[in-house]
Amino acid sequence: MAQVDLVTHTRVPRGLGPQVGKALQRLLAELGQSDKTLTVILTDDAEIRALKQQHWGEDAPTDVLSFPTYEPGDSFIPPHLGDIVISLETAQRQAEQLGHSLPHEVKVLAAHSLWHLLGHDHRSEAEWEGFHRVQQRILEL
């Protein structure tokens, strides 16, 4: 089964990490990637802002960042897909604005980022379809 390593750099509500990890494992299996691993880092706005500044040159917090361990489009996909970094502070604000729970929001962000790690982007409306599909599916797992 796929392995999801969880790293916490901020206070995480009890049970959130395992809940998200299990849902990601199931999603990876459904996507035919059960032999892969990835790392999920749960952090705060300050850390994700610093990462966004360092890697994208943008000085603002965000909800999620994806760091693939390979160049999307390569024919060889390594066993470790990469890192998903989620700001729990931003995720909490978004969950409140959208009227759902923090676990719901974190799962959606994790699925979105996983789809990026698998080499997908959302430059067009048609490309968004895959993101919407995995984001909905992770909530059902």
Short note summarizing the structure:
Helix content is 50%, strand content 18%. The protein is an alpha/beta fold. A 4-stranded mixed beta sheet has the order 1-2-4-3, sandwiched between helices.
Could you walk me through the main structural features you see in this protein, from its secondary elements to its overall organization?
This protein is an alpha/beta fold and 141 residues long. Helix content is 50%, strand content 18%. The protein has a 4-stranded mixed β-sheet, with helices on both faces. Strand 1 (3-8), helix 1 and strand 2 form a beta-alpha-beta unit. Helix 1 (16-30) crosses helix 5 and helix 4 packs across helix 5 (125-140). The protein starts with a strand and ends with a helix. The relative contact order is 0.18.
Strand residue content: 15-25%
Largest sheet: 4 strands, mixed
Q: What's the number of helices? A: 5
Strand order in the sheet with the most strands: 1-2-4-3
Number of strands: 4
Measure the end-to-end span.
15 Å
CA radius of gyration: 14 Å
Computed structural class: alpha/beta
Overall pLDDT metric: 94
- Overall outline: globular
Q: Helix and strand string, N-terminal first?
A: EHEHEEHHH
Stretches where pLDDT falls below 50 for ≥5 residues?
none
Q: Residue share in helices?
A: 40-55%
